[in-house]
Amino acid sequence: MSSDNLVEFQNVSFAYGKRPILKGINMTVPRGKVVAIMGGSGCGKTTLLRLIGGQIRPSQGKVVVNDQTVHELDADGLYHLRRRMGMLFQFGALFTDMTVFDNVAFQMREHTELPESVIRDLVLMKLHAVGLRGARDLMPSELSGGMARRVALARAVALDPMLIMYDEPFAGLDPISLGVVGNQIRRLNDALGATSIVVTHDVHESMAIVDYVYFVSDGVIVAHGNPDEMRVSDKPFVHQFVHGEEDGPVPFHYPAASYGADLRLGAENA
Amino acid sequence: MHSRIVKAVRRVGARVINAVWRFGVASRFLFLTLAYSGTSFSRLRLITREIFSTGVLSLIIILVSGLFVGMVLGMQGYDTLQRYGAAESLGVMVALSLVRELGPVVAALLFASRAGSAITAEIGLMKATEQLAAMEMMAVNPIARVVAPRFWAGVISMPLLAAMFSAMGVFGGYLVGVKLIGVDEGAFWSQMQNAVDFHQDIVNGVIKSFVFGIAVTAIALFEGYDAPPTAEGVSGATTRTVVTSSLAILALDFVLTAFMFRGEG
């Protein structure tokens, strides 16, 4: 009996050394949905993805994926689970010594015994889905940022994963690529019957395509709800974030001594 | 004063502990590389590809350097030997210096700076651009897929490169000694043939270059894999590869020589 949630965070904390990154996170990602995790840079969003992928272990609590506790799996179990996940890294992380075609074919060649003719058809189908069938023979260095992201997307879904994770899929894209990648995230999720988690700080692009949003700040979840609720939310953090205000709960200034004291104002008078 | 001394001792202690710890991590890394080598041998294409980029692409520098080192040996050797009226032994001198010492050592030093630095930079950049993390997330072990093939490619290439270095060097010595200076050609080759022992000289030279190959490639791979994922991190690691492996080559050479030629030859 599998539960309705593909991913569950149960009171998860994580620290790098003594520096706490996540503090008691509770979060669920229902099957078939596209969920966004939003927050400022360095708030621990990417750490959440790394916990799901089992690249790091929580210092407290547990992460459950497809009814399995990730950090309790042995190496084989973890690799088995990862075969059913696809991940899009921030800048694509394409293998620079392989062509676009070989990048997408990589997992099929590593994990399946499929004959090369079948792999060819599958790769071309994946590339066609992201509009880059014609770019199959290019090297990653010959691609624009948006194209590289789309190739990485095709590679992430190469084995039709049950869970697709996106780490800042919109970072550094022009407006056209932004819309293209956004729509593809939604379309691929629905076409594959997968579940997607999008870590991002791009409010407008992601609000348009996701079903549910979690806001993370300073290692805790400060708000969650569907995009419409978030747009009208009066919580200070959400308001600041959604409307891109300079000052608010997230201060503009890095902590420092008082401005006057720093400029030694009044020092001459003393 | 007292606290200063304590601080200094502590700093030294921390550096020693850090060095030992890093050595431990590196040994573990080498062990894992060996343990995950199965994939490389069941898919030999992975290794041959790397032999091309580490071995074949190092050929030019190895062959040219070998030729010049041999020519210099020819000149210097002749100058010294003719003082004792032993100029016909030039062939022996050139061949023994190359096969026992210069071939393995100089080829390994060149290999470290040509191929070792390239390996470190490549692996370091793969790490910095999250390619290794991506591979791991695809349930492919980067040590098995990326590190092990490069390791074996280096270990296989190194003795071959050293042999080619020595062969080129002998040819260079011949050019200078026989063709240029005019040492008797028959004496040059026949004395070399008589004096160079297969087991004592050639096999020992091959063993040396094999050991150097392991050391250089393992250091290069570890430095790349361990590099901080930033521009400075990768450049620092590349430098460390060349420095550490050069020192390792020379230190190992001393140890190996001490074992191999204990005044018997």
What are its keywords?
heterodimer; A: 270 residues; alpha/beta; six-stranded mixed sheet; B: 265 residues; mainly alpha
Quick take:
The complex is a heterodimer of chains A (270) and B (265). Chain A has helices at residues 45-52, 75-82, 100-111, 116-129, 145-156, 175-192, 203-207, 227-231, 236-243, 259-262, and strands at residues 5-16, 19-30, 34-38, 60-65, 68-69, 85-88, 163-167, 195-200, 212-217, 220-225. Chain A is α/β, with parallel strands linked by helices and 270 residues long.
Structure characterization notes:
The complex is a heterodimer of chains A (270) and B (265). Chain A is α/β, with parallel strands linked by helices. Chain A has one domain: P-loop containing nucleotide triphosphate hydrolases (Rossmann fold). Helix content of chain A is 35%, strand content 24%. Chain A is built from ten helices and ten strands. In chain A, the strands form two sheets. In chain A, strands 6-7-8-3-9-10 form a six-stranded mixed beta sheet. A four-stranded antiparallel beta sheet of chain A has the order 2-1-4-5, with helices on one face. In chain A, helix 3 (100-111) packs across helix 4 (116-129), helix 3 (100-111) runs parallel beside helix 5 and helix 5 (145-156) runs parallel beside helix 6. The radius of gyration of chain A is 21 Å and the shape is globular. Chain A starts with a strand and ends in an 8-residue tail after the last helix. The model of chain A has no long low-confidence stretch (mean pLDDT 85). Chain B is mainly α. Chain B has one domain (36-260). In chain B, helix 3 (44-54) packs across helix 7 (142-181), helix 4 (59-81) runs parallel beside helix 7 (142-181) and helix 9 runs antiparallel to helix 10. The model of chain B has no long low-confidence stretch (mean pLDDT 92). The interface between A and B is medium-sized, with 19 and 15 residues.
